[in-house]
Amino acid sequence: MNTLHTQTNTSGCKKALNIAEVVSFNEETLPPEVLCSTPAENFRVVYNGTTAMVFSRLRNHTATTEKGPFSIGLNFYPDLVKEHRWSARIFHIGMIDGIEGLTADEKRVFKELGTQHARSRVAVEMAWRMRYGWPLFNQKGLEDRKRTGAPIEPGTEG
To answer: Which of 2, 29, 51, 84 minimizes the number of CB atoms within 10 Å of its CB?
Structure first.
């Protein structure tokens, strides 16, 4: 995935992720074992998130516009799309009833976590990241550093 470091947004759309900047930051500041990947499948998880409308959000990531929410913006990275195999794995609230081994009460709790409050969805998202790792395209750490004025380059902390 070294080609990710050289990707350029072809439109300048401010709502699309700056992939080269985010990937470089995450790879330089996080140990490799913290970044999501499934080496057996030669597959890297680049994003995870939660939303009440998962299919709409998935469309946003592949067809970003200035009017829409912030997203990956794959439509502005034609070379990246051609060079890599992309897939989406989702978990939709409607799938909960089909999970074997959960009691009716456990299913109810999962449905509430997924639908009642955005904070509950964030908790589920963070639990996923604690178990599986930090997605390569997640820009939270970079945003925090920029917002606080902390050095962005690794090793430049005071």
So the answer is: 2
